[in-house]
């Protein structure tokens, strides 16, 4: 039991590190692209605010763990978590290698769903609540958050350009770059709030499954582990995805970069604090960049890259569910099922 619990904690730390490593691009790509911040300063800024957001997300993680899924007690529940985490980590590494921004949350939920089905197939216990989790954390966000982010950023370009219509372009660019320094920190803070919840909730579920906690409170070490690993991953920086968002997706100037980051941060903070919705930082920022970049006189959207990204977004929960299904079947003999 303790062995499987330790493995889950290690994999949860790896998941948080990879999350920060990949999603650092969401915070820094535009600021670096428009030369608002140097790469080093941007990553340090993102790391600091990711740590703050992830640390504060501990207060929300208990609510997430209660409303997310309910795992079987004992080794069966721990292996389901282990299979889900391993599939999400493997898919995250692959999408980083391909330079594709994809959602870690969708990968994890898909993995837990696939592992839960495999558990039932071999005579184990079911994962309850996974249907609602798939609906509210995968299907609806997959459909709604990119659409809202794209449409909102597209529409906000008009009042932003109208307000700057009499201002010299060099002044607009200079002010927009300064504003991007603030919005980049806001996106990093929102990312820490959003994704810190999920990693902490995974560890809480592991504590519940192993009988080491009643779920009434969050141990301090869980919050520190999540914040530290998320920040370490951010500082390591996954520049492949940053290059895709900042350079390959669409052409974008400092004003539109500011609009995209501002709107993304509002959605992330509102989702985490106001609505308690799990919103993908990657989906939100990518769609907002695309929306703001499309609303210009000579848009330069790379349609092939957009189609490839959308295909990976749809594939993410499917592939991780299939991988976790296989992993759970491989792990089930170790638990007696």
Q: Please, could you describe this protein's structure?
A:
It is built from twelve helices and no strands. It has 337 residues and is an all-alpha fold. The chain has one domain. Helix 5 packs parallel to helix 12 and helix 7 packs across helix 8. It is elongated, with a radius of gyration of 20 Å. The model has no long low-confidence stretch (mean pLDDT 81).
List the helices and strands and how they pair.
Blueprint: H1 2-33, H2 39-56, H3 58-67, H4 75-98, H5 104-121, H6 130-163, H7 169-210, H8 220-236, H9 239-248, H10 254-275, H11 281-294, H12 303-331
Q: Share of helix among residues?
A: over 70%
User: Outline, from the CA principal axes?
Assistant: elongated
Q: Major beta sheet, specifics?
A: none
Low-confidence stretches: none
Distance between the termini: 15 Å
Tell me the radius of gyration. Answer: 20 Å
> Can you count the helices?
12
State the secondary-structure class. mainly alpha
What fraction of residues sit in β-strands? under 5%
Count structural domains.
1
Order of helices and strands: HHHHHHHHHHHH
Q: What's the total number of strands?
A: 0
Q: Could you report the average pLDDT, rounded to the nearest whole number?
A: 81
């Amino acid at each position: 039991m303790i062995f499987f619990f330790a493995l889950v904690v290690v994999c949860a730390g790896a998941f948080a590190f990879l999350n920060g490593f990949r999603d650092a691009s969401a915070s820094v790509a535009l600021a670096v692209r428009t030369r608002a911040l140097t790469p080093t300063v941007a990553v340090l800024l993102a790391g600091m605010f990711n740590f703050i957001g992830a640390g504060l997300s501990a207060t929300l993680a208990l609510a997430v763990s209660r409303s997310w899924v309910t795992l079987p007690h004992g080794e069966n529940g721990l292996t389901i978590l282990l299979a889900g985490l391993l599939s999400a980590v493997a898919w995250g590494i692959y999408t980083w290698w391909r330079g594709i921004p994809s959602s870690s949350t969708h990968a994890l939920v898909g993995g837990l769903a696939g592992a839960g089905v495999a558990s039932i197939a071999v005579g184990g216990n079911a994962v309850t609540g996974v249907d609602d989790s798939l609906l509210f954390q995968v299907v609806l966000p997959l459909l709604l958050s990119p659409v809202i982010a794209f449409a909102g950023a597209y529409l906000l370009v008009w009042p932003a350009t109208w307000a700057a219509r009499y201002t010299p372009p060099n002044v607009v660019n200079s002010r927009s770059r300064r504003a991007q320094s603030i919005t980049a920190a806001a996106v990093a803070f929102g990312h820490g709030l959003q994704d810190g919840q999920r990693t902490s909730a995974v560890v809480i579920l592991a504590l519940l499954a192993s009988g080491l906690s009643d779920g009434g409170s969050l141990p301090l070490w869980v919050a520190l582990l999540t914040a530290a690993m998320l920040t370490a991953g951010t500082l390591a920086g996954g520049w492949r995805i940053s290059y895709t968002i900042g350079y390959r997706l669409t052409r974008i100037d400092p004003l539109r970069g500011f609009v995209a980051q501002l709107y993304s941060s509002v959605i992330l903070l509102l989702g985490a604090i106001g609505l308690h919705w799990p919103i993908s930082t990657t989906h939100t920022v990518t769609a907002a960049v695309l929306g703001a970049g499309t609303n210009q006189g000579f848009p330069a959207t790379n349609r092939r890259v957009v189609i490839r990204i959308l295909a990976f977004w749809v594939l993410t929960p499917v592939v991780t569910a299939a991988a976790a299904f296989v992993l759970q079947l491989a792990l089930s003999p170790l638990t007696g099922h």
